[in-house]
Amino acid sequence: MTAFQPFTRIREQPLSRRVLETLTGSARVLLGQAEALEDPTERAAWQEAQDWLREVLADGPRKASEVQKDARGAGISDKSLRAAREKKGIKPHKDTTVEHGAWHWRLPRG
What global pTM score does this model have? Predict the structure, then answer.
């Protein structure tokens, strides 16, 4: 196992009270700790967006621009939609059957 070099992080505090803290551990451990501190409302937002995407794409592929517009109309932020799309494994696909084909989203197969 490789030895990890500690690095310094500035805690989020007012500029006059910034505190330096040395972190040690693997990237996986440090990222896990950061995710544990994530805002629970943000997590709930992408989970809601993921459920919404599952419903919207259940009948097959849809134009990405339409999905994004409908998501905004449903109160889903672009950030939450993108996070939900990535976590759900939805990859944009371009319609190559026409010259200026649109991008489409579809649920992963399987």
Answer: 0.60
